[in-house]
Structures are given as structure tokens and as C-alpha cells.
Amino acid sequence: MLDYLPAPTAPPTERVVRSVALLERRGFAVSPARLATMCLGGPVSEPDVRWAAAAEGLEIVDGLVVTPSSAARAGAISSRARGHAAHAGAYIAMTQRFVRTLVSFAPFIRSVWIAGSLASGGFRESDDVDLNLVVDDGHRHLAYVAVNVLGLAHAMAHRNKPVDDLTRRPVAPRLMTANLILESSQLAPLARTDEGMAFELLVSEPVFGADVFERIIAGNPALLEHFPQLANKRAPHAIEVAPSRRLPRWLFPAIADGAARGLGKAAWRYMQWTRRRHPEALARVAFVRRTMRPYTLFDDGDEEGAS
Fewer Cβ close by (within 10 Å): the C or N end of the chain? Predict the structure, then answer.
């Protein structure tokens, strides 16, 4: 927890409207009670949320605060929330086991956080698990390859897992995905401290290296201007891995990152090729890529991504 006094913010009504818009851009919505706790600019009361909804033309559909343009999707989003309640616990435990293996094999990984639907509350069994990572300088592509190689080995034990157009693979389902990979030198300051990046950190759930996560918040106070809640963020799912259980770092010199980049990019292009008949899946990947810039891997100016 950090000592932080929030700066003056916009009126609650405006902040509620902007929060709903931010959530909508990411494809989900939350209840009035949850929106009150995660509101842009700091928590507000649930009555404030309901007042803003009534005053600004928002709607509460299936228990979710949405804009009129998203009202038709509220049922599907609500269904996701119910699925999350049923399956999230098992997948968080699975992710903890995977991360323990990952950081033991890849000692250059400093921190891992759950992101995406498993962190935000909309996970369903056909989803993959998005992971954000912090790694030693010069090891981003090595980390990407490590997540994918170990992720494939892990997925072999879960070949009967439900899949969709994003998670379907020829051999085994896509189960663990590198969403955002930051190098240690990129943390202070972050190139981005906008509300989108602040929100990404707010909904992320640290699994390993919670101290690194805390240093990111402490070293980028502008993030707290968007979401003061970050000052009190906890890590209930964090695990510890003893240094003695990790491989020595000298096995993975930074010079190997170039070869890893070539291998990772080839694998990425292949996965995009397998999605060529699924425009919704390609569009989703392109959206995630845009939200992660300038940190995306394989950023050659086209519509690739690093998911």
C-alpha cells in the first residue's frame, strides 16, 4: 500500500460516464456496486452511480451499467460474469501452478500478473488466460517464447478444454497467453500513464513479483491521478518461488533474444494464418494490440499483435 492523497477530480457524474465508456471500449460492463469501487478518479457511492445513469442516459440492464448502444450485449456480458463465478477459482489455481513452473524455468521473469477476462470478471471456459510480465532487459522475446512453449506443454493436459476462434489450436488449446511484456528499464517512467494503462494495472492480479508491481505504481504517480485505488491494491493470489528453485540466469543471455524474436514472430504469423477465416478473432487481437502500444512485440507497422 502507498501513501497517497488523491488530487481534485471531476464531478462523480462525469467520472461514472467516462468509466462506463472505458469499460465499453474493452468489451465489458459491471454492476453499479462494482462500478462505484472502480470508478475513474476514485471510488464513489452506489447512489452516485445510479444517479449518473439516470441523469446521463446510461441504462442498467441485467444488473450492468451500460450505454444505450451496448444494451443489447448486456445479456451476453452478464452470462460471462456468471461463468466467471463458476470457473475462475479453478483457472486462477491453474495459473498459479503454471506461473510457478514458468518462473522456475525462466529466471529472467521478474513479475507476472493475470490480465484479461480472468482478471476483469468475465472469464468463460473457452477463454485463454492473459498474462502480463516484467522481464530483465533484453529478454522480452525469450519470455514470449517461454510462455508459448511451456503454455503448449501445459495445454496438452487440457486438450478437452472448450475453445473458441481465439483459443483453437491444431494440437492443444491456447491456454496461457503473453499479453503485455515490459522490460525492467521501461518501468520508471512508463511510456504510457494514461487512463487506459492505469485501468490495465487496476484490473490486473499479481501472481508473482507483487513487489515489482508496487514499484511500478510508486514510480509512476500519474497513474494514481486516474485511479487512486491503485495505491491500496493488494495481491491475494501472489505466490513465492524460492531463488534456489529457479534456473541460473546465465543460461539465458540477452544475445539469445534475437533468435527468440525470429522464432516467436514465425509462431505468431502462423497463429494469425490459422485465424484467417475468423474476422472477429482477428479484430479482437488487433484491438488488444492497439491497447498495448507501444509495448507490442513484432510491431512492424501492420496489424499484428503480441497476444
Answer: N
- Taking the C-alpha atoms of residue 80 and residue 284, their distance in angstroms, rounded to an integer, is 17
Domains of the chain and CATH, by start:
12-75 (1.10.10), 88-292 (no CATH)
277, 269 Cβ separation under 8 angstroms: no
Q: Is 196 helix (H, G, I), strand (E, B) or coil?
A: helix
Computed over its alpha carbons, how large is the radius of gyration of the chain? 19
pTM here?
0.91
Q: List, for residues 162-190, the tens digit of each pLDDT value.
A: 998 888 888 899 999 999 999 999 998 99
Q: Where are the alpha helices (DSSP H) in the chain?
A: 12-25, 32-37, 46-55, 74-105, 116-120, 140-155, 195-203, 210-219, 222-226, 257-274, 279-292
Q: Strand 109-115 relative to strand 129-135: parallel, antiparallel, unpaired? A: antiparallel
pLDDT higher than threshold 70 for residue 192: yes
